[in-house]
Amino acid sequence: MSTATATRAPTGGSPLGRIAAVMLRHLYILRTSWPRIIELAYWPVMQMILWGFINQFLMTKSSWVAQAAGILIAAVLLWDVLFRGQLGVSVSFLEEIWSRNLAALFVTPLRPTELVAALLGMSLVRTLIGVVPAALLAIVLYEYSIFTLGLPLVAFFANLMVMGWSMGLVIASLILRFGLGAESLAWMAIFAIAPITGIWYPIATLPAWLQPLAWLLPSTYVFEGMRAVMLESRVDWMMMVSAAALNVVYIAAGLGIFLWMFARARRDGLLLRIGE
Amino acid sequence: MTTAIRVEHLCKNFGAVVAVDDVSFTVAPGTTTALLGANGAGKTTTIAILLGLLVPSSGAVEVLGEDMVRHRYRVLPRINFSSPYVDLPRRLTVREILTLFARLYGLADRRRRIAEVAASLRIDDQLKRPFGHLSAGQKARVSLAKALLNKPEILFLDEPTASLDPDSADWTRTMIAKEQRDTGMTVLLASHNMAEVERLAAQVLILDRGRIVAKGTPAEVIAQRGRANLEEAFIDIARDVAPEARI
Question: Which domains does chain B have, with CATH numbers?
Answer without folding.
Answer: 5-245 (3.40.50.300)
